[in-house]
Automatic annotation (TrEMBL):
Full protein name: Tripartite tricarboxylate transporter substrate binding protein
Keyword Signal: yes
Top-rank taxon, per record: Bacteria
Keywords: Signal
CDD domains recorded: PBP2_Bug27 (cd13578)
Family under the similarity heading: Belongs to the UPF0065 (bug) family.
SUPFAM superfamilies linked: Periplasmic binding protein-like II (SSF53850)
Length: 324
């Protein structure tokens, strides 16, 4: 009997040690899915694949990109919001997370409640470009011209409620001007019409317009963000051009479901920070028009709150509505 009791006690100790050892295993153990709420090949997908490849190399487990487009990114967003908070499902979050809560009442997820911001990867600055025959050649003269022609100057975007549409609405509010918004279905025809002079100006991400600016087909007036773009070194920032309160970045960040263990979030954040210091990664992001940002988890949380408030205010002030 004593032998049996002693054997049982030893077995319990061994099982307890094995159990403790399992809990001590570092994250991640097994593949991690990074959901991208867009089709493959776009800016968000490119960012996700670049960062996922480096996470796989550094953490020794596969980080697999899973494209889940649909419902203005809400399909993929909701999928991650409802996922188990075990660090095995992440979201490549971007600016629609700051826009959709106000633009689309009744969402099945709450950004500030259902996610934890893991890492702020980078921002894609917006460039204000005009046709080459537009009378203004810099920001002060553009604002002056629009004020002198209220309601007769237009700007276009790839659709109502898109980040570049709202960038134009933010510009109107900051500059105190009245402009007509012309929505297109996508950006290709919009850029063609801008080159042809059928429309006056657009706010768009750098990769969409830089080649046309360099070719002399479009004129760049100003760029959002804290510094000039390497590819357009002669184009001032909005702050340099006299409008320091205008900034409309299309941001990218890694998100996890709320309730994810703090040690998992911190490990991912620290790893992404290291990745963003790699010269090759910084160069690759810059090539696709993304300025690396980084920073800790609290800083990213504060950024998310500020972005949701800013875009919410823009949407409400401009009375922007979309067809359901």
């Amino acid at each position: 009997m004593r032998f049996i009791q002693r054997s049982a006690a030893i077995l319990l100790l061994l099982l307890g040690g094995a159990h403790a050892g399992a809990h001590a295993e570092p994250y991640p153990q097994g593949p991690v899915t990074v959901v991208v709420p867009f089709t493959a090949g776009g800016g968000s997908d490119n960012v996700a694949r670049l960062i996922s490849d480096r996470l796989s190399a550094r953490l020794g487990q596969p980080f697999v990109v899973d494209n889940k487009p649909g419902a203005s990114t809400n399909l993929g967003n909701e999928l991650v919001a409802r996922a188990r908070p075990d660090g095995r499902t992440l979201l490549l979050g971007q600016v629609t997370l700051s826009i959709n809560p106000t633009l689309m009442p009744g969402l099945k997820y709450d950004v500030m409640r259902d996610y934890v911001g893991v890492a702020h990867i980078g921002d894609a600055p917006v460039v204000l470009v005009t046709s080459t025959d537009f009378p203004a050649r810099d920001l002060p003269s553009l604002v002056r011209y629009v004020r002198e022609h209220p309601g007769k100057t237009n700007f276009a975007s790839g659709g109502v409620g898109t980040s570049v549409h709202l960038a134009g609405e933010l510009f109107k509010a900051r500059a105190g001007v009245d402009m007509l918004h012309i929505p297109y279905r996508g950006s290709t025809q919009m850029v063609t019409d801008l080159i042809g002079g059928q429309i006056h100006m657009i706010f768009n991400t750098a990769p969409s317009v830089v080649q046309f600016v360099k070719a002399g087909k479009l004129r760049a007036i100003a760029v959002s963000g804290a510094r000039r773009l390497d590819e357009l070194p002669d184009v001032p920032t909005f702050a340099e051009a006299g409008m320091p309160d205008f900034d409309a970045p299309s941001w990218y960040g890694l998100m996890a479901p709320a309730g994810t263990a703090p040690e998992v979030v911190e490990r991912l954040n620290a790893t992404v920070e290291d990745i963003l210091r790699e010269p090759a990664v910084r160069a690759a992001l810059t090539r696709i028009g993304v300025e690396p940002v980084g920073g800790g988890v609290p800083a990213f949380a504060a950024f998310l709150r500020a972005q949701q408030k800013m875009w919410g205010d823009v949407i409400r002030t401009a009375h922007v509505k979309i067809d359901n």
